[in-house]
Write the structure tokens for this entry.
Amino acid sequence: MQPLTDAFAVFNDDYFWPFVIVVLVAISLYFTVRLGFVQFRMLPEMLRSLRGVRGRGEDRSKQISSLQAFMVSAAARVGTGNVAGVATAVTVGGPGAVMWMWIMALVVGAASFVESTLAQLYKVPYRTGFRGGPAYYMLHGLGQRWMGVVFAITITITFGFVFNAVQSNTISTTLVGSANEVGLATDDMVWLTPTIGLALVLLTGAVIFGGIKRIARVAEALVPLMALLYLILGVAVVALNIREVPGVLSLIVTQAFGIREVAGASLGMAIIQGVRRGMFSNEAGLGSAPNAGATASVSHPVKQGLVQTLGVYFDTLIVCSITAFIILLGNPTYGEDRGATMTQDALNANLGSWAVHLLTIIIFLLAFTSVLGNYYYGESNVGFLSSSERLLTGYKWLFLVATFLGSIGSISLVWTLADTTMGFMALINLAAIAPLGGIAYLLLKDYRTQRREGLDPEFRLSRLPHLRNVQCWGPPQEDASIAATEPAKD
């Protein structure tokens, strides 16, 4: 298997992903200019949109709020890649990779805005609220169902099964590593990983069988908690090394532009590692986050587009930066690729062994919330393929099987293949949002017009009557989503 794994790794690293990155950056720059630098100019609006009210659906139950949809997408975005992926970028690409990670987040924020705004516009009513995503705007916006089917299958396999197995494997190996740290002979405990896998299956099943609303509530509770714990660790490391921070910042900037090289890490390597790992982390343009963004009950599609762009910043500029500073302040050995171990070693050196165990808890939260977010991405797209309840139930059980198998197995080949399928998924999504970007521009123009008039923007299809195949946002007497935009009365 190793030769096959190596062959796919070379294909991904040297040919396929550089092409994907070029396409994503080019389209993101186009959107940045076309939309008037929306990801920079409307930052205050992003924060304001998080406070939007939620309404009730046809069953009078509360729908998903803008904040909850943000948390579901953040749950999938903020995963072990923020710990292991950033560590790889820094140690292989050098400190300059951090700067390119930041730059990437700022640029692709425009693509994130477009895809999530389109997902809101072309969402469809569902018994628990709304459902949508790239497959839906490929069908209703482009009129290309085949394209939506290909995307739905690809994202379900990539996130619903493969990435889910990777996250459960991370949980298992991290818990075993923590057990080793306290002196347990885990090599003799053959029952340990199956027990961890079974416990994870039971915990995951209890959430996913409760539907998107339960997933949203769990994500809303866990995402802020894990971010706060990780932030505390990062701030503690920075505080203990405050005199070295200016030097680290200088190293990041100078090495990013080739002014100063570190341990042979070239400018090209810094750019490639920073851009790629940043994209893996924040998922902007990949077509995954819009599946969560479409579930939100908001009064205007642009609001959720802004919120999801804020998610890109939260993931990269905050969480990834914490990892980068923890590692760089720990005087890492460049050229090695030891993933999360680099972060653990840096914490151990700065704070002691207790920090390693706290990181185990954080990684568990990171991975578990990613499992939940990945599940919903698959559920939404299985629903696009068919409305059969049997198919959805079958997907849930297969998801749990993948969770268990991931926790007890080695999945290096599967992970490498997932890199390819995720890149393919991104290209399909970019091919869809490029021609639909003009609609996002019109929606943004309508939003800004209402804001200048002192209004809380509220979209109705009558404001852009030439749009076709929009399932929600219709005339008040016909639009089932009206209830979703009114404050809920308890």
Q: What stands out?
A: The beta strands are 124-126, 129-131.
